[in-house]
Amino acid sequence: MEKDQSPFNDVAKQALTEYDLQDHTLTFIQHSDNVTFKVEGPGLDAYLLRLHIPVTSAMGTHGADPGAVTSELQWLEAL
């Protein structure tokens, strides 16, 4: 873990374990509608890890809506 700025580091580390990416590093980016981390591997691979944990409830619960998540995944696949 590089920048230890987020209270969500443990959750992010667990996500890396679930995807068998323990050898990757996490760099906290920001917390707004989502908590985001840059994930970098030992090679040239890099990913964005996004945890939907809004700063306030006014930012919405779309990240907990299975239909919204499915729609977003379809959009990402199309890209």
Please, could you describe this protein's structure?
With 79 residues, the chain is α+β, with helices and mostly antiparallel strands. 29% of the residues lie in helices and 24% in strands. A 3-stranded antiparallel β-sheet has the order 1-2-3, with helices on one face. A hairpin with a 5-residue loop joins strand 2 (35-40) and strand 3.
> Using DSSP, what is the number of strands?
3
Shape: globular
Structural class: alpha+beta
**Helical content class:** 25-40%
Biggest β-sheet description = 3 strands, antiparallel
The H/E string reads: HEEEH
| Low-confidence sequence ranges | none
Radius of gyration: 13 Å
Number of helices: 2
Query: Which strand order does the major sheet show?
Result: 1-2-3
Which range does the strand content fall in?
15-25%
In angstroms, what separates the terminal alpha carbons? 29 Å
- Name the average pLDDT: 81
Key features?
79 residues; 2 helices; alpha+beta; globular; single chain; 3-stranded antiparallel beta sheet; 29% helix; 24% strand
Topology:
Elements: H1 9-18, E1 25-31, E2 35-40, E3 46-51, H2 66-78
Antiparallel strand pairs: 1-2, 2-3
Structure summary:
The chain is an alpha+beta fold and 79 residues long. The chain has 2 helices and 3 strands; from the N terminus they run αβββα. A 3-stranded antiparallel beta sheet has the order 1-2-3, covered by helices on one side.
